[in-house]
Specification:
By secondary structure, the chain is mostly helical. The chain is 69% helix and 0% strand. The protein has helices at residues 4-13, 16-34, 42-54. The radius of gyration is 13 Å and the shape is elongated.
Length: 61
């Protein structure tokens, strides 16, 4: 499950380079779904993106 508020806080705390990397990974996943690349389904995409967002480290306080 994805806690949107917690994810938002983690994204805000990212530096520009890390934020761009996550954005590129998100775009790549969306492209794989739209191109029907190797059976990568919408469900696979959602699961992968949730794992990606959940893997962002907690902001340092």
């Amino acid at each position: 499950m994805l806690d949107l508020e917690k994810t938002r806080e983690k994204i805000i705390a990212l530096n520009e380079s890390d934020a761009k990397s996550i954005l590129m990974l998100t775009a790549a996943n969306l492209q794989m779904v739209s191109n029907e690349n190797g059976g990568f389904t919408s469900d696979n995409c959602v699961d992968t993106l949730i794992k990606l967002f959940n893997s962002i480290p907690e902001p340092k306080r």
